[in-house]
Design brief:
By secondary structure, the chain is mainly alpha-helical. Helices cover 74% and strands 0% of the residues. It has helices at 7-22, 28-56, 69-72, 77-102, 105-119, 133-154, 161-189, 195-199, 201-227, 238-250, 257-280. Helix 4 (77-102) packs antiparallel against helix 5 and helix 6 (133-154) packs antiparallel against helix 7.
Length: 285
Amino acid sequence: MRPATLWAALAPVLVGSALAFRAGCFEPGTALVALVGGTLIQVGTNFANDLGDARRGADDERRVGPARAVASGWVTPGAMAVATVLAFGASALCGVYLTWLAGWWVVAIGAASVVSGLAYTLGPFPLGYRGLGDLFVMVFFGLVAVVGTAFVQCRAVPELAWWAWIPVGCLATAILVVNNLRDRHTDALAGKRTLAVRFGGSAARAEYVVLLALAYATAVALALRGAGLAMLLPLASLPLAVPLVRRVLLEEGRTLDPALGGTGRLELAFSVLLAAGLALGGRGG
């Protein structure tokens, strides 16, 4: 399940729900169902990723990251396939309820999320093996998750949602960048052409810095655009970001593992502060 990175499912729901609160349409029950459904989609994606990487040889004995279940023989491929179906199936039940509330657009959002989660490492065109993983995470753990959470509560998209998803997507993508930076040598041997493999470690490190900088710059931009000085609250998470940047710039291999979980925690802290800034900024946004 990779619990250290499951914050990527919680963060967009917090921000999307804060957007709904600011717009006067917050629904706690709907937000909770969105959180459960989003987390199940991420868990299903992680299961599918474990299965797909094992089949393609990306998680063999040369792997420098944490051991994976199927490749290590802890779980059979058949059992992992069943677990994947169960996780996505349970997320679909959440989707049925949200569709009843907000309409058929939820079906399109949910179906696209599940298909992309499966296609990340499975199927004839695995996204993660074609260098499209970063785009996948940015879109589905940022744009789709934040805007979708606000939409199912408000039945419309608050204007600020088109800005507020950007830092959430950037920080979720940064988690993947650390993972791909750590694994780039073994990924290359397995034919997994992530951006870190295609362009090298220096480019991956630069991408990480740019993603974090863009997240903080968006918070400042929101404040400057009149969303309220409370939008500067995410800057309070900078003490968490600085040592992470230092580690990503200097470390290699297994020593990057703390940066992986740390970036997940940074996303959570930033998103909590961003959500607080949205909620405190007044209604009507």
